[in-house]
Amino acid sequence: MSEVVRPTLSDALTERMLELIRAGGLRPGDRLPSTRELSQRFAVTTPTLREALRRLEATGAIEMRHGSGIYVGADIERVVLPNPNMREMDGEQLLELLGARVVIEPPLAAMAAQRAAGAELAALEQVLDEAARHLRGEDAELHETNMTFHRATARLAGNSVLHEIVDSLLTVHGAEQRAILQLFDDRRRDYEEHRAILEAIVAGDAAAAQERMRAHLVDVKTVVEQRLHNPPK
User: What share of the chain is helix, strand, coil (3-state, %, to 5)?
Assistant: First the structure.
């Protein structure tokens, strides 16, 4: 018979902290009691409390602001989280992640075309306007804007779990995506593909939005495959 793993004091304290947040109806951005107050409340030492707080911070459940206090984190209600301990991925893992995006994101673009309207579309337009301002070598800013476009498109599909999956995939291989941008070395083409996806979404053309997103992501995956098979010397 396998040995039963007993929960540690830190495990129990982590659960009690989550219960405190939920029972109190606290929302992201709400402030929690100080470490001293929490230590007294739960009758634990400060080092034990800090271990539990670090666990919660790693998953985005809380945010510890130096000199300010402890706050409920933006990710407290997430269903899907990126692995905070993810090491650098090998080539096959990266291709699998990109393959997952090819499967997931095109249908989300179609869903966005069917339901997005008004201010949501205007916000997506602003994202690409921002990208246009960074096409001449400002790759760090352009990368962030490109990822914002993909995250926003997934969010407009209206399924929070699928949006979190896309967000997690983009977060997990952010460094590789930045490298892809530099390797692809055709920022204008990348931007125009995003613009074509947006035009289909604005037009409410679900089929075109899906196909254009699929073609765009296949382009990205092809670049990565070429990089793996013919690495730069």
Answer: 65, 5, 30
Give the DSSP per-residue string, 58-92.
HTTSEEEETTTEEEE-TTTT-S----TT-----HH
Give the contacts of 215 (CB within 8 A, at least 6 positions apart). Answer: 193
* Per-residue pLDDT at 224 exceeds 70: yes
Contacts of 158 (CB under 8 A, 6+ apart): 111, 112, 115
Q: What are the backbone angles phi and psi of residue 136, rounded to the nearest 5°?
A: -105, 55
- Alpha-carbon distance of 88 to 227, in angstroms, equals 16
DSSP label of 136: S
How many CB atoms are closer than 10 A to CB 226? 12
Mean pLDDT of 183-206: 88
| Domains, the chain, ordered by start | 9-72 (1.10.10.10), 91-229 (1.20.120.530)
CA pair distance 77, 91, nearest whole angstrom: 32
